Amino acid sequence: MAILNFRRKTAAAAPVGDKAQVEAFLKNYSIEVMPRTAEKVEDFRTLLPAGTRVYIAHIDGTPIEDMVATAKRINAEGFPVMPHFPARIIKDKATLGDWIARYQGEADVKQALLLGGGVATPAGDFDNSMQLIETGLFDGFDRLHVAGHPEGNKDIDPDGSDKNVMQALKWKQAFSERTDAKMAMATQFCFEAKPVIDWVNRLNAEGIDIPVHIGVAGPAKLQTLIKFAIACGVGPSLKVLQKRAMDVTKLLLPYEPTDFVGELAAHKAANPGFGIESVHFFPLGGIKTNATWAIENGGASAKPVAA
């Protein structure tokens, strides 16, 4: 049995990045919900600033009717919605066309996140987001976002490299240069700033300038975050959580992304051309908890509509 060394609790370190930098970095952030989590929010206008983009995650097994109803409700409250289209859970082009028609007809959807999806075996004809794009069914959308993986993706590159991921991103870069839709790359959540900075700089060196919307895990219990991080394939930055879990003074405290966001905000302030355009929150500890943290750290830019 390991023996824990209890230490006297020291004063908390000052957050990295000053308040103005963090507020500027959080401006126009987006957030992700699922139909079942959205049901717990009585009115998104009491939590989110005007114009907040709300992604709607489509987990395998969720009926399309629930997805469309959630999009319709959030759109009616005044927020642009961006539903996920996971290629591997979509049976065929006819199914994809039906989903798009429902979203457009019932919820005025004009934005979409296209991704491969986490299931191991495709349900039908599609395996990746490029195949979805090639159908032409998203022509006319205002925005098309794709997935980004700052720490790699073992589903795409089982050998641990990023060869296939980079090849796909170069294809998407070429598409971004010929489409009228605005594009961005919404990434998996991470916990360490330096690898993210290095990855964004490498994208630029490879000629990929699709704006990055960096994934940030919202405040949550440490055990919850570790569980989600392992399930979602978070890479080396998982060690940040594991190190925290070994510190008895922090074990029972909720994780907050203050340092991670602060370091990225400071880097962006010092390098205005840096490729991160926005923050995308994964509210793993609850939407209200995440929105409250954003309000407290984002100042006036994060005030909810109904404030």
TrEMBL record:
The keyword Oxidoreductase applies. GO terms for molecular function: oxidoreductase activity. Keywords: Oxidoreductase. InterPro entries: FAD-linked_oxidoreductase-like. This is Methylenetetrahydrofolate reductase (NADPH). It comes from Albidovulum denitrificans.
